[in-house]
Amino acid sequence: MDDSSIDAARTLADPVRRRLYEYVAQSGEVGRAQAAEALGIQRTLAAHHLDRLADAGLLEVSLRKVSGREGPGSGRPAKLYRRSAGELSLHLPPRDYELAAHVLAEAVERHGAEESLHAAAREEGRRIGAGHRGEPLDELLRARGYEPGEGVEDDAGDGAVRLRNCPFHTLARAFPPLACGLNLELLRGMLEGRGEDGERARMDARPDRCCVVISKNNER
């Protein structure tokens, strides 16, 4: 735990800022006017809170013309906000679960135990899914750190829901096959535990998104 994590938590304590942060996280990249309209607040108030979120390291800021025109008369670049790529954690008392996860992943790879890890992930997914059969899938996914979004479909037009993030991001960067395989089996197990077809979850890695896609609902 460091000062930046404490500052970020303090910043999100304000309910308006928290709603703005959640809106930006779900929307990708937004401007001040767009955020103000979405939350039903004044643009100046939205700008103030968005800048506070950026100062705390929770949002990244870029300047870009959104009119599509260039040259004189095209207007000034707009200030756009998107969720920061950095990660913050707050544990009281301080803990370092990420270090433990990396050490365990290294041991699994050294001893070729990927198959056992993936089997355990599927079993854990079934246990989780069985305990949430009556709950909407998107709510279950969000509770586990995923961001399924709404209306996010596969580019091929098959209606597959893409997850906007990976809850195991840093682990996936260091151990891609291991972490992505764990992720896939965990999600397949969650679907099976809910009485659905686990094969709806399939691997389809894309930049800046989760490596797994969940196809259209197809309950058994």
UniProtKB/TrEMBL annotation:
Q: Which InterPro entries match?
A: ArsR-like_HTH, WH-like_DNA-bd_sf, WH_DNA-bd_sf
Can you tell me where the transmembrane regions are?
none
Q: Which Gene3D superfamilies match?
A: Winged helix-like DNA-binding domain superfamily/Winged helix DNA-binding domain
Q: What is this protein called?
A: Putative ArsR family transcriptional regulator
